[in-house]
């Protein structure tokens, strides 16, 4: 019996080695990818984002290259993942009919529609800068449970957003009252939509919501005791009531999930998978609205969230 023990132990070790080798052969090996980040103009602002992405994906090689220094797209290996920021970079990418799989950030749906039209390039995904309509409408409904008519100003080039809003609003018991605002120097469309709605919901259209129009929009809406929801955290700081938004951590999490997928599986467009909420307590007090904390609002909206 004593002589057989070393032999049995050796057999067990050999069996363990064979099992481990088999597991290594059966387990898919993670392939390192090159992630090429770029934007038009100065790339220094991308450094923090690139560092965070490299920390989240240590197996990949992350590089930041100025747009004008990127080689011709047909010379970039198909295994490279091109990650571009801003509508100028989008226009640059669309100049080439071929190129590596591309993920676009910091582009609104309105900007993308102007650049793409009805085209949908293969292996090309837009990570919308817009807040997800369902989140915005649920935020609105939570803060203002008695409202039913939601006023929405749009420009001719952002009118296509109304259909998505109407589809989403109908499931929440809300009605979208749309109003064209082709000339922001004319305040009458703002007054008209406020007269037939309970609250104003801002869409991500820089032609309508910008520093030049902010004062008119905010003073006119609050003069009629109407809250303005959206369209961004920056506009909340300027005086709108509240908005959902995605920050760098949210976009990194979304990007990380997409990079784990084959480009053929990427959605044509997506909102951030996670999000945050920013409210303006001073505006809420002026309008007599109870405003929970930002964290509490985010937790509430995250329950059953479908962007």
Question: Quick summary of this structure?
Answer:
The protein is an alpha/beta fold. Helix content is 41%, strand content 17%. The chain has helices spanning 4-26, 46-56, 87-94, 109-116, 133-143, 161-170, 188-195, 211-223, 233-238, 248-259, 281-287, 294-302, and strands at residues 34-39, 61-64, 81-85, 102-107, 124-128, 149-154, 175-180, 199-201, 228-229, 242-245, 269-270, 276-279.
Class from secondary-structure proportions: alpha/beta
- Major sheet size, sense and barrel closure: 6 strands, parallel
* Distance N to C terminus: 68 Å
Percentage of β-strand residues: 15-25%
Total number of beta strands: 12
Stretches where pLDDT falls below 50 for ≥5 residues? 20-30
| CATH homolog superfamily of the largest domain | Response regulator
Q: Assembly type of the shown chains?
A: single chain
Helix and strand pattern: HEHEEHEHEHEHEHEHEHEHEEHH
What shape does the CA trace take? globular
CATH fold naming of the largest domain: Rossmann fold
Mean pLDDT: 89
Give the CATH class of the largest domain: Alpha Beta
Classify the helix fraction into a percent range.
40-55%
Which architecture of the largest domain does the CATH hierarchy give at level 2?
3-Layer(aba) Sandwich
The whole-angstrom Rg is 25 Å
- Strand order, sheet with most strands: 2-1-3-4-5-11
Structure description:
Residues 20-30 have low confidence and may be disordered. Helix 3 runs parallel beside helix 4 (109-116). Helix 6 links the parallel strand 6 (149-154) and strand 7. The chain has two domains: 34-130 and 249-270, Rossmann fold, CATH 3.40.50; 133-245 and 275-302, 3-Layer(aba) Sandwich (Rossmann fold), CATH 3.40.50.2300. It is built from twelve helices and twelve strands. The chain has a six-stranded parallel sheet with strand order 2-1-3-4-5-11, sandwiched between helices. Strands 7-6-8-9 form a four-stranded parallel sheet, sandwiched between helices. It has a two-stranded antiparallel sheet with strand order 10-12. By secondary structure, it is of the alpha/beta class.
């Amino acid at each position: 019996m004593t002589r057989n023990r070393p032999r049995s132990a050796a057999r067990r070790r050999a069996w363990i080695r064979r099992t481990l080798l088999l597991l290594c052969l059966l387990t898919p090996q993670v392939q390192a990818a090159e992630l090429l980040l770029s934007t038009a103009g100065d790339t220094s602002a991308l450094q923090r984002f690139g560092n965070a992405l490299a920390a989240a994906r240590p197996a990949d090689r992350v590089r930041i290259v100025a747009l004008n220094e990127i080689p011709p797209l047909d010379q970039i290996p198909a295994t490279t993942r091109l990650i571009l920021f801003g509508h100028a970079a989008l226009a640059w990418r669309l100049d080439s009919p071929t190129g590596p799989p591309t993920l676009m950030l910091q582009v609104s749906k309105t900007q993308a529609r102007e650049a793409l039209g009805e085209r949908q390039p293969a292996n090309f995904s837009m990570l919308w800068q817009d807040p997800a309509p369902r989140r915005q409408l649920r935020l609105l409904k939570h803060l203002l449970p008695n409202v039913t008519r939601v006023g929405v100003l749009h420009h001719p080039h952002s009118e296509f957003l109304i259909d998505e809003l109407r589809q989403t609003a109908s499931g929440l018991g809300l009605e979208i009252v749309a109003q064209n605002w082709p000339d922001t120097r004319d305040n009458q469309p703002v007054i008209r939509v406020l007269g037939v709605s309970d609250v104003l919901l801002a869409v991500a259209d820089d032609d309508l919501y910008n520093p030049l129009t902010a004062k008119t929009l905010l003073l006119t809406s609050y003069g009629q005791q109407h809250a303005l929801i959206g369209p961004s955290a920056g506009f909340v700081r300027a005086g709108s009531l509240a908005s959902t938004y995605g920050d760098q951590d949210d976009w990194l999490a979304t990007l990380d999930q997409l990079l784990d997928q084959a480009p053929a599986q990427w959605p044509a467009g997506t909102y951030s998978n996670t999000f945050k909420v920013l409210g303006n307590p001073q505006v809420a007090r002026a309008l007599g609205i109870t405003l929970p904390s930002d964290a509490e609002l985010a937790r509430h909206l995250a329950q059953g969230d479908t962007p």
